[in-house]
Design brief:
Blueprint lengths: L4 H18 L18 E4 L3 E9 L5 E5 L13 H6 L3 E5 L8 E2 L10 H14 L5 E6 L1 H12 L4 E7 L17 H5 L2 H5 L3 H9 L2
Helix pairs in contact: 3-4
């Protein structure tokens, strides 16, 4: 049976917790009570006011869960509880362009380059005074996690890459997928570049 996204992410969370423990990053001692908190918080960086939720133990090792497009932080609802109960500090931020995350300067040019989103992860950790973190991400969240690990290996203790290595090659000429099905999965990219796509985004923002 094909697992649902939530079941898949739950399994990924369990694997990530096991990897963290074996890698030397220890959670809070078992028996301490985890704090499950869906109250939205905000932290300020040089560019963004980042909205996020925090659960678990305030002195546990921090795990940052990064959502992808077109999802948001609710995609991790099945993963947060077991990680929090295992003794970790679980942080789930909205990426730029999502939820309550906002540009501090309304005149700031809007962009979502993969390097910028990765820098947001580092800035988020800095704003919370986190010297080291573990990350897990899918889609754009995975891309941000991969780049963060590459550019700041001293800051990332462990990473769960859902979908594997996904840093986009922006230099080499783009090549079509080897299968028609692979190309068909990109339908939304063309849709969003049409007038109908723009109108749909405005109507359903």
């Amino acid at each position: 049976m094909t697992p649902s996204r939530r079941e898949f992410l739950q399994a990924t969370g369990a694997v990530g917790a096991a990897a963290m423990t074996s890698g030397g990053s220890r959670p809070v001692q078992a028996g301490a009570q985890a704090v499950m908190n869906q109250e939205l918080r905000t932290v300020q960086t040089a560019v963004l006011d980042i909205g996020y939720e925090e659960s678990g133990h305030s002195d546990g090792f921090p795990i940052v869960l990064l959502h992808g497009f077109p999802y948001d932080i609710r995609a991790w609802d099945g993963v947060v509880p077991p990680l929090a109960e295992a003794g970790y500090r679980v942080l789930v931020p909205y990426l730029r362009g999502y939820g309550s995350t906002r540009f501090r300067n309304p005149d700031e040019p809007r962009m979502a380059e993969q390097a910028a989103i990765a820098q947001d992860v580092v800035d988020f950790a800095d704003a919370l005074s986190l010297d080291q973190i573990a990350t897990a991400g899918f889609d754009w969240g995975n891309r941000a996690a991969c780049i963060t690990s590459i550019l700041h290996p001293d800051r990332v203790r462990a990473q769960v890459a859902i979908g594997g290595y996904s840093v986009q090659d922006t230099v080499s000429p783009s090549r079509p997928s080897s299968s028609a099905a692979g190309e068909a999965r990109l339908w939304y990219q063309w849709y969003f570049n049409t007038e109908r796509g723009r109108a749909g985004l405005e109507a359903n923002r």
